[in-house]
Amino acid sequence: MESFIALKSRNFKLFFIGQSVSLLGTWIQKTAIAWLVYKLTGSPFILGLIVFVGLIPTLLLSPYVGSFIERCHKYKVMKNTQWLAALQALLLAILIYLKYYNITAIVLLSLMQGVINAFDVTCRQAMMIDLVDDKEALPNAIALNSAMTNLARVIGPALAGVLLSAFGEDFCFISNFLSFIPVLYCLYLMKLPAFIKNEEEINVLNKLKEGFIYVKSEKRILSQLLLLSFFSLMLIPFTTLLPVLAKEVFNGNSQTFTIFESAVGIGALISAIYMTSLKKMEKLYNSIILSSIIMGIGLGIIAFSHTIWLASIGLVLSGLGMICQSASINTYIQLHTVPEMRSRVISYYIMAFLGMTPIGSLIIGLIAEFLNTRTVLLLEGFLGIFSLSLFVWYNYKIEKELDTELKIINEE
Known about the structure:
It is a single chain. Helix content is 83%, strand content 0%. The protein has 412 residues and is mainly α. The termini are far apart.
């Protein structure tokens, strides 16, 4: 089938299987830690702080990581990051099992995970093209990877809700540690071409500068990265408020929270399935616009909803818009960036998508300490529609400039 063409590649199939299990464990732990932290502190700001320390390394390190990965064997880097991530998961599981509920320790381990992820995420994205036998299957591989991630986002929180009620938080954290076994096993089964080391002396600062100049010169890529950066700063951190929405706004419990997490995941999964079936890559620009509108509307619905189910519909739309926008931009970058710049541009994409989110989580968490949750969500939705308007205007201006240049060339 066209929608699963990337799975014909043995290496991508192994990657897909291993990551499917690992991401399931990640979402079980992510749900458990958010609920545990809010239960212990009752503070939206502390929730934002946990997200902040877990993702801020991505913002600070991504440009350097992109240049570093360009001269390393990506396969070995990914194996090392998975081992380190398994160690971090084990330490956190031991901490919770011993019921040592120390926020400082949780913050430090979240920071450790953030540093590991800064390398792992960039490496996985840059390595994607090496995992498929047919380069034309790359868009499908990206879309399947997104679908896998978001299916885990649906199932993980639902499982976490059951595990939290039946066995407690410690079982969720132990489950995440165990989920690293299949991903490591699948990684060691892969057969990738031998790595040819570039002996040329590389100046990382010069590489960074070249990457920045390239992004700046590619106006369409630049505009998409700026849009994604703003959404990551001001809209995507709505997920930080889900425990507050569940407990304070709807007077719910851990099950309510997992319903909300799963609703976001369902929307994200629908988006990922859509991306796997997208045949015409020229529709990516339309996907970016439509998904941004859907996310803004979704946040507005949540803000005005007075039932759990109406809020869940808003969360489905928000999740759909969030992932469709980021996946469309990711696919556009992968397809339109010259090979020698791909790792560096991907690092800017990751910085825009994941790197801005921690700052946004801190800002949104702080605002939520003073404004009610509904007002914050409504403000986020409005800012999303406003920023999209600027994006559409800027791209219209780019098209007009290109048309003018083309007419001048034809006249000459």
